[in-house]
């Protein structure tokens, strides 16, 4: 369907096997468990979108490594938040529901600490996630409405 075509059109190197999902920067590849390992196709796609959002953060594709400097010790949690928001935005784009992931609980204390230290962290993370989503949609040839486009049309 549309979502499978999108995953292919991003150009990301996605392989299937094993029992966990991850993006490996050293090989610039995403590994996902086989589709049957997921409870639903929505879970498969949400996980794919999460890993794709990580993939957009590679140095060659993004300025996101600067996020590490800004958040220091909680940079990993910040990147996970960006990936989760990116997955949520993509699920919304494709009309898919999204279930909370088991690892959210592990990140929650880091996210709360991050928000306490930097109240605008959620906005920074959401902005990074939106940039990642826009990048993926453009790579897949899907028209992207941005605030800049809307302002230009209104003028």
Q: What tags apply to this protein structure?
A:
single chain, 155 residues, mainly alpha, 3-stranded mixed beta sheet, 7 helices, 3 strands, 58% helix, globular
Q: What does the model show?
A:
This protein is mostly helical. 58% of the residues lie in helices and 7% in strands. The chain is built from 7 helices and 3 strands; from the N terminus they run αβββαααααα. The protein has helices spanning 2-9, 41-56, 66-71, 75-93, 104-117, 121-139, 147-154; strands at residues 13-16, 22-24, 29-32. It has a 3-stranded mixed sheet, with helices on one face. α4 (75-93) crosses α5 (104-117) and α4 crosses α6. It is globular and about 40 Å long.
How would the blueprint of this fold be written?
Layout: H1 2-9, E1 13-16, E2 22-24, E3 29-32, H2 41-56, H3 66-71, H4 75-93, H5 104-117, H6 121-139, H7 147-154
Overall outline: globular
Number of helices: 7
Physical arrangement of strands within the biggest beta sheet:
1-3-2
Round the mean pLDDT to the nearest integer and report it: 86
Please state the oligomeric state of the protein chains shown. single chain
Major β-sheet annotation:
3 strands, mixed
Helix content: 55-70%
What proportion of the residues form beta strands (DSSP E)? Answer: 5-15%
Structural class: mainly alpha
Q: What's the Cα radius of gyration?
A: 16 Å
Uncertain stretches of 5 or more adjacent residues? none
Quantity of strands, as a count: 3
